[in-house]
Specification:
With 630 residues, this protein is α/β, with parallel strands linked by helices. It is 29% helix and 23% strand. The protein contains 18 helices and 26 strands. The relative contact order is 0.09.
């Protein structure tokens, strides 16, 4: 069994059988999934796969006998798999549920040597919102986006939030795109430049998202294709159009609209200037035309500059903030579109150590000993439309923040969600939280997603969002299952052919740091290599990349409560190893790391394996096992 094949809410399984012939269905997306299941021609097995949108009376009876409730049957994305005789039937009231059912067939086959059990499986999510927040891909990295969509669907996610900013073509405002490229070049002049600009002035500034679109922009037609790929698979796409704050993509081209006119890199527009909205709404119109969205995310996080310009002086920052959200909300509502927003500025977030965050009144220490006062905005929660969907990324700061939305009947999801860091998860879902989405604040390159722990968060989070009852005592066991699941997802093809199974660790230690503008650099992070020598004289070099396929063995599989905020702390280095590598807990308390490498010369005997260290760091590379598997 595997984590996903075993992740079922209700099941009563019978004999497992292979596909006895090539199975075809009309829908090409479902067909693409089924084609990944091996066929054993001529053997007794499943001959047909049917997809249905309604349950038969006999199927309903079987599900009720398993304990499935009527409300669970009506839950969006719930689905059932029935296997009887020579026919498998996948049933869900929507196509996305049917697609999840097709992936369940694939996952069962992957876990059972190509065989799929008969009987009944029924799965129902406990969270209606399950997703990931990303940037638009660079023009030469579109395949990374498509692969990420497929990954999300394999793990039963239903939503993608895509930040647009300056990274999509604006036909009515080409100056935004031209200026965006210039701005991104400046922010990427060297790895530390963006962080330097964010912290070099006497006032607080937004983080800088110059990695969006790879520092350039995509033609609208290309973005339409990305959106179409998602919508064909019923993946909900929510475009994020940063507004009020994180408006650098607008203001670099239109500095006359800046709230701080003296800021050389402005990031907040003036909410009292009608021209701000003329520009924003024309940008929104183009985004709406391309995405045809049900919901638009309007940003509004990290808003530190309000009530400062000549038009805004003397006005209450909370009222300015609320008026801006309301104006955008009403514009979208007239077009039948819901509003979502980053919600920390509507919370009076005082952490358990007494530190003020979010919409609380606060003073920031800035460059060269200066201080910046950020006025309170938390009163705005009672001044904005009640149907605005709060994307609450302060779940980790104050648990009680959830209640501020629930008691006002405001819909709320968790943003920047880390499923193993959240405290009181099940209680918060039961209280009304609709689910969560991790975020990735840089490119969609696989090594970066792995190192930043996003793959681990998504798979661990899939369990939490589909299987009720998670408690923190389950963390280590579930993390192990997540690691195994990811290792198989990445390495199934290699494991099915001649390969080397390598288990190792290193006494070198390097600090983990979230990768944004300073990416994983293969040359910098390579600490050595294995040189495999064959009898024929051929050699194979296997690079050892710290943080990707080898790490220090002193890793922690435990949760610890933060002293400052309402969240758990975890070992980021451990979580960032999962995908290419399988961390293994050893009896002595160490963690060793296993990786699979294809053997290109399986018929050529090996005469030696040399360990070559190339890094100047103190420490050794320690090989636990080097096995040849056929």
């Amino acid at each position: 069994m595997s984590m996903m094949s075993d992740m079922n809410n209700f099941s009563q399984l019978t004999e497992a059988k292979p596909f006895g012939c090539v199975v075809t269905v009309q829908n090409r997306i479902l067909q693409n999934v089924l084609e990944q299941i091996p066929v054993q021609n001529g053997k007794p097995g499943w001959q047909k796969v049917l997809f249905a949108s309604e349950y038969s009376p006999l199927q309903l009876e079987a599900l009720h006998n398993l304990g499935v409730s009527q409300s669970q049957l009506q839950t969006e994305d719930s689905y059932a798999v029935f296997g009887e005789g020579d026919t498998i039937t996948v049933c869900s009231t929507n196509f996305r549920g049917q697609l999840f059912g097709a992936y369940t067939l694939l996952q069962q086959a992957q876990a059972n040597d190509g065989k799929i059990p008969g009987g009944v499986i029924f799965n129902v999510p406990q969270c209606s919102f399950r997703g990931l927040k990303v940037y638009l891909p660079a023009p030469d990295a579109l395949d990374e986006f498509y692969r990420m969509v497929d990954f999300l669907l394999y793990y039963r996610c239903n939503t993608m939030i895509i930040e647009i900013g300056g990274a999509m073509e604006y036909k009515k405002h080409p100056e935004i795109n031209e200026s965006w490229i210039e701005y991104c070049k400046e922010m990427g002049r060297y790895p530390e430049r963006a962080e330097e600009v964010q912290n070099m002035f006497g006032w607080s500034k937004n983080s800088i998202h110059f990695e969006n679109g790879g520092g350039t922009f995509l033609p609208q037609e290309t973005v339409r294709k990305l959106v179409s790929y998602c919508k064909e698979r019923w993946m909900q796409v929510i475009p994020e159009v940063p507004s009020l704050s994180h408006a650098d993509y607008l203001l670099h081209a239109h500095p006359e609209l800046a709230e701080r006119p003296y800021d050389p890199f402005p990031d907040v527009y003036c909410p009292s200037n009608p021209e701000s909205y003329r520009l924003l709404f024309e940008v929104l119109d183009e985004v709406i035309d391309v995405f045809d969205p049900e919901t638009v995310h309007i940003g509004h996080d990290e808003c530190y500059s309000l009530g400062l310009c000549e038009l805004c002086k003397g006005k209450d920052p909370a009222e300015l903030y609320a008026a801006d959200i309301t104006r955008i909300h009403d514009y979208l509502a007239q077009r039948g579109i819901r509003t979502m927003y980053w919600s920390e500025k509507v919370l009076n977030a005082i952490a358990k150590d007494g530190h003020p965050y979010g919409g609380a009144d606060q003073t920031h220490n800035c460059s060269r000993g200066t201080k910046c006062h950020v006025a309170a905005t938390y009163r705005s929660i009672d001044l904005i439309p009640q149907d605005c969907r709060a994307h609450n990324w302060y779940w980790s700061i104050v648990v009680r923040g959830d209640e501020e939305f629930h008691k006002r009947n405001m819909p709320m999801t968790f943003g920047n969600w880390s499923p193993f860091r959240i405290v009181h998860w099940q209680e918060r879902v039961d209280a009304g939280a609709q689910g969560g989405a991790p975020s990735h604040w840089t490119t969609l390159s696989e090594p970066t997603l792995q190192y930043n722990g996003v793959f681990t968060e998504l798979v661990f989070g899939a369990h939490l969002q589909w299987i009720p009852g998670y408690q923190p005592e389950q963390y280590a066991a579930l993390l192990e299952e997540t690691a195994k699941e990811l290792f198989l997802y990445k390495n199934r093809a290699i494991l099915s052919q001649p390969h080397f199974s390598i288990t190792h660790r290193t006494t070198i230690e390097r600090p983990w740091k979230y990768l944004t503008s300073a990416p994983l650099l293969i040359d910098r992070d390579t600490i050595g290599k294995y040189v495999v020598e064959y009898e024929s004289g051929r050699t194979l070099e296997i690079p050892l990349i710290f943080g990707k396929n080898i790490a220090n063995p002193f890793r922690s599989w435990k949760l610890s409560l933060s002293d400052h905020t309402d969240c758990y702390c975890v070992d980021n280095s451990l979580c960032g190893m999962m995908l290419t590598t399988l961390p293994i807990r050893m009896p002595n308390g160490e963690t060793h790391f296993n990786m699979a490498v294809a053997n290109p010369y399986p018929n050529d005997p090996i005469i030696s394996v040399r360990v070559v260290k190339t890094a100047e760091d103190d420490g050794e590379i320690l090989l636990t096992a080097f096995e040849q598997d056929d």
